[in-house]
Amino acid sequence: MDTYILAIESSCDETSVSIIKNGSVEISTVVLSQMDTHANYGGVVPEIASRMHIENITMVLEECLTKANMTMDDITAIAVTYGPGLIGSLLIGVMAAKTLAYIYNKPLVPVHHIAGHIYANNLVKEMQFPLIALVVSGGHTELVYMKDNYSFEFIGGTLDDAVGEAYDKVARVIGVSYPGGPNVDRLAYEGNDTYNLPLPLDDDSFNFSFSGLKSAVINLAHNEQQRGNEINKEDLACSFENRVVDILTKKTMRALQKYNVKNLVVAGGVSANRMLREKLTILCEKESINLTIPEIKYCTDNAAMIGAAGYFAYKLGRRADLTLNAKATDQLK
Ligand code: KG4
Ligand code: ZN
């Protein structure tokens, strides 16, 4: 019998509901982004985000069911992002999921946001194990080894800033509007790698550090400003992006080798990055690695990925009851 997961994601500034069949087939997804509102403030304002989730969640849910031509009777279980993320935002999704589970008497499946990002890859093609997941988002930069479904072994991560966070801060310094990551990425493509920036934490570990690189960009911009020189935004963006992509790909390829793994998946908002996608594609082809990167629309936050992860969590018997609470931080497990 087919399993239909109705999934809810509200961890940051996207209100999203999706229905996913058997962990891989998207029946319908609705994503309502608040980006335009937060752009006025140069970043996500948590209080505004949670209020907007309250206003929109019912509408998004109804639209998703209508698009799928389904009712709650057709749904097997309800999956929801319980964390990590903005606590006020998460609470709205969790409350909505608990209410639906209670009213319609459906199993409730808690999903870790990063598990969702990883399982976005199962919407492209069935994930093969063992695999290495490169997780690159606004809050995470990690290498994860997965022996099997829902088995997450942390092998390295950032010691300070997440890569998306570094993108967003660099965007501000070089005067690029919100959202920083995609806009710096676009600029980088018009520039050349001319600025002398360091390759960050180029050591034998699987850890990352982006605050030094970020500071190098900030100092460079300030120094040029004091000298009355104009920085070349395109070139600075390109130089920054080159260092980020170089270190991410270098350590990822080394992890694949060390763990003797032939499958790589990429997860999180920064997997939308053009240079990262291109470089990984070339390197993996050369090393005969089976690479999967989600479609751009599944890279940033959406409920389809929560539905894909939710399916496997459901099959493994993971359940929450009505005491489920949102968690701003939580380990991937
Ligand atoms: O996964 P995500 O949507 O939210 C979190 O869970 O954090 O990731 C958002 C992050 C932001 O920092 C955004 O600037 C970054 O992903 N991002 C990018 C690109 N698209 C989004 N960074 C670099 N290049 C991009 N094309
Ligand atoms: Zn995310």
Structural notes for this entry:
It is built from eleven helices and ten strands. The mean pLDDT is 96. A five-stranded mixed sheet has the order 3-2-1-4-5, sandwiched between helices. The chain has a five-stranded mixed sheet with strand order 8-7-6-9-10, with helices on both faces. It has helices at residues 35-39, 46-68, 87-104, 113-119, 163-173, 180-188, 211-226, 233-258, 274-286, 296-299, 303-315; strands spanning 4-9, 14-21, 25-33, 77-83, 108-112, 131-136, 141-146, 153-157, 263-267, 290-292. It starts with a strand and ends in an 18-residue tail after the last helix. The chain folds into two domains: 4-119 and 298-315, Nucleotidyltransferase, domain 5 (2-Layer Sandwich); 127-293, Nucleotidyltransferase, domain 5 (2-Layer Sandwich), CATH 3.30.420.40. It is globular. By secondary structure, the chain is α/β, with parallel strands linked by helices. A hairpin with a 6-residue loop joins β7 and β8 (153-157). 5'-O-[(R)-(carboxyoxy)(hydroxy)phosphoryl]adenosine is lined by residues 12, 117, 137-139, 164, 167-168, 179-182, 185, 268-270, 272-273, 300-301.
Write the layout of secondary structure elements.
Layout: E1 4-9, E2 14-21, E3 25-33, H1 35-39, H2 46-68, E4 77-83, H3 87-104, E5 108-112, H4 113-119, E6 131-136, E7 141-146, E8 153-157, H5 163-173, H6 180-188, H7 211-226, H8 233-258, E9 263-267, H9 274-286, E10 290-292, H10 296-299, H11 303-315
Helix pairs in contact: 2-3, 4-11, 5-6, 5-7, 6-8, 8-9
The structure holds 5'-O-[(R)-(carboxyoxy)(hydroxy)phosphoryl]adenosine and zinc ion.
